[in-house]
């Protein structure tokens, strides 16, 4: 019996192939997805990992066996699958393990209109059915099985994104893109085609073994090649995508990383110019700059927990126009509340190309504070260390505590957030302050408590 507790996570399915799951299990997931969504038709896509085509086709067979018609869109980015789900009005399944190593694969699932499926919105039921069928055998096939057909939506996806951001009048820009051998190598050429951009393509060959570096641009070592190429060539901007190309990381013309909080603030200002008075969602680890910029541009900032399910739920609840996270996930109402790094990248290119200053000057107004970045500490007792930190700050004058997500401690000139990892024995610390010296002081004080 497969141990599904190891592969069914809070928001998706993810594990090592074939050790933890394989095509026979994927077929059961397809049938369970069909049963839980109750849909007459679904859409399925996959990334460039060696195991992805077989897993995706097995899932399609499982759904079709219960009478569901399946549209296969083949190779795609995760946000391209969300586009297909929204555009076609169908539940969708994306086969990817994002930035995980080559031996991993997974499934990100959504209902029609790219509405997320997580533990509380269908994933627990899907898991229960797969466990039942793995023990007793696959469900009885429908008398009239569904069809499996192919459809290419890449051009439609690109056209939709281009309809949301006007790049026609921008100055010519030299852009380096590091696709990390992931799906950005598939989507970027079509999305950028015909724009006044000189594209310098790094690692666009689709290769799920990731021969050059991990496709995780949040780890500084994975953007070194991009930084060097931008500086060598005098490019205006560098963009790095993760393995399934739903996240985008930005490097300025000096080769310096631009914080995702600054990108969130920049895109928020642009979206508020289009949707005046709108609500913008940001998680509790984004910079103070984000709510400040939102208010300055006539919008309403709403703070939420970290994680796409919380962001998407708040966007649906509030009718928000945009949401951003410190992890370079960007969510748009105009994109079915789903995350798309590509649309965020187009906004940055439009902002940069619409004026004459370098990107470092442009983003300075959105990057107002010093920050530590995320610092991980391995601990034996997450709850005990969290309690020790809370006790140290509780009752301290001029300090406020909240536990929206982990522990956030806020003072006049600084704040920090400490939260436990859901999957590892780690505590994650983020500190922000008005200057680097204060960041260092707060960081060291908190880490002395965490690592005591």
TrEMBL record:
<dbReference type="Pfam" id="PF02878">
    <property type="entry name" value="PGM_PMM_I"/>
</dbReference>
<dbReference type="InterPro" id="IPR005844">
    <property type="entry name" value="A-D-PHexomutase_a/b/a-I"/>
</dbReference>
<keyword id="KW-0597">Phosphoprotein</keyword>
<keyword id="KW-0460">Magnesium</keyword>
<dbReference type="InterPro" id="IPR005841">
    <property type="entry name" value="Alpha-D-phosphohexomutase_SF"/>
</dbReference>
<dbReference type="InterPro" id="IPR005843">
    <property type="entry name" value="A-D-PHexomutase_C"/>
</dbReference>
<protein>
    <submittedName>
        <fullName>Phosphomannomutase</fullName>
        <ecNumber>5.4.2.8</ecNumber>
    </submittedName>
</protein>
<dbReference type="Pfam" id="PF02879">
    <property type="entry name" value="PGM_PMM_II"/>
</dbReference>
<dbReference type="InterPro" id="IPR005845">
    <property type="entry name" value="A-D-PHexomutase_a/b/a-II"/>
</dbReference>
<feature type="domain" description="Alpha-D-phosphohexomutase C-terminal">
    <location>
        <begin position="374"/>
        <end position="447"/>
    </location>
</feature>
<feature type="domain" description="Alpha-D-phosphohexomutase alpha/beta/alpha">
    <location>
        <begin position="6"/>
        <end position="133"/>
    </location>
</feature>
<dbReference type="InterPro" id="IPR005846">
    <property type="entry name" value="A-D-PHexomutase_a/b/a-III"/>
</dbReference>
<dbReference type="InterPro" id="IPR036900">
    <property type="entry name" value="A-D-PHexomutase_C_sf"/>
</dbReference>
<dbReference type="Pfam" id="PF00408">
    <property type="entry name" value="PGM_PMM_IV"/>
</dbReference>
<keyword id="KW-0479">Metal-binding</keyword>
<dbReference type="GO" id="GO:0004615">
    <property type="term" value="F:phosphomannomutase activity"/>
</dbReference>
<feature type="domain" description="Alpha-D-phosphohexomutase alpha/beta/alpha">
    <location>
        <begin position="156"/>
        <end position="255"/>
    </location>
</feature>
<comment type="similarity">
    <text>Belongs to the phosphohexose mutase family.</text>
</comment>
<keyword id="KW-0413">Isomerase</keyword>
<dbReference type="InterPro" id="IPR016055">
    <property type="entry name" value="A-D-PHexomutase_a/b/a-I/II/III"/>
</dbReference>
<dbReference type="Pfam" id="PF02880">
    <property type="entry name" value="PGM_PMM_III"/>
</dbReference>
<feature type="domain" description="Alpha-D-phosphohexomutase alpha/beta/alpha">
    <location>
        <begin position="265"/>
        <end position="369"/>
    </location>
</feature>
